[in-house]
């Protein structure tokens, strides 16, 4: 099943604001992806059983370093939604139509499972929001890279929230 990556962050805004930034297409497009990536395409059917499809687009410099790969797609299905508290979803690399593809298509570990689980919790702490991302199913060699990517994405989320 792979290793679990846990990344936490505290945002100096109410939980409802962080929830909106995480669950609304227009908001997600402002921050999704690590530094040097944009999110030009996001579709989200935010309900249990609903699907999402996200595109992360690399800058020219990053794409060149990654062998020319510019767009990285991922898809998944929402398994559990507790409003303003918790989201559980599957996640997989995909093509632009949402068809699941192996991570190796994007030059990543062939040991990565076709589907992983992500649990995101939103906890109120003294008027601030503690966000915890739990990503289950990473091979050992992907942990550091995934941690960096999530931390950079959450940095961008903080900027979008005015933190």
Written account of the structure:
The N and C termini lie far apart (35 Å). Strand 6 (116-125) and strand 7 form a beta hairpin. This protein has helices at 15-23, 25-31, 60-65, 143-160, and strands at 3-11, 37-44, 51-58, 71-82, 86-94, 116-125, 128-138. The radius of gyration is 15 Å and the shape is globular. It is built from 4 helices and 7 strands; from the N terminus they run E-H-H-E-E-H-E-E-E-E-H. Helices cover 25% and strands 41% of the residues. The protein has 163 residues and is α+β, with helices and mostly antiparallel strands. The mean pLDDT is 95. It has a 7-stranded antiparallel beta sheet. The protein has a single domain (3-160), classed as 2-Layer Sandwich (Alpha-D-Glucose-1,6-Bisphosphate, Chain A, domain 4). Helix 1 crosses helix 2 and helix 2 packs across helix 4 (143-160).
Fill in the keyword field for this structure.
7 strands, 163 residues, 4 helices
């Amino acid at each position: 099943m792979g290793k679990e990556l846990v990344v936490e962050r505290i945002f100096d805004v109410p939980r409802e604001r962080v929830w909106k930034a995480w669950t609304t297409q227009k908001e997600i497009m402002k921050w999704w992806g690590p530094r040097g990536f944009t999110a030009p395409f996001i579709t989200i059917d935010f309900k249990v059983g609903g699907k999402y499809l996200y595109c992360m687009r690399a800058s020219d410099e990053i794409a060149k370093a990654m062998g020319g790969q510019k767009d990285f797609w991922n898809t998944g299905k929402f398994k559990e939604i507790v409003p303003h508290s918790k989201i559980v979803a599957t996640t997989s690399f995909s093509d632009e139509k949402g068809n699941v593809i192996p991570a190796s298509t994007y030059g990543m570990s062939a040991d990565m499972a076709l589907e992983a689980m992500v649990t995101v919790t939103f906890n109120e702490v003294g008027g601030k929001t503690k966000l915890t991302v739990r990503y289950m199913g990473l091979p050992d060699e992907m942990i550091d890279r995934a941690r960096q990517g999530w931390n950079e994405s959450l940095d961008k989320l903080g900027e979008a929230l005015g933190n």
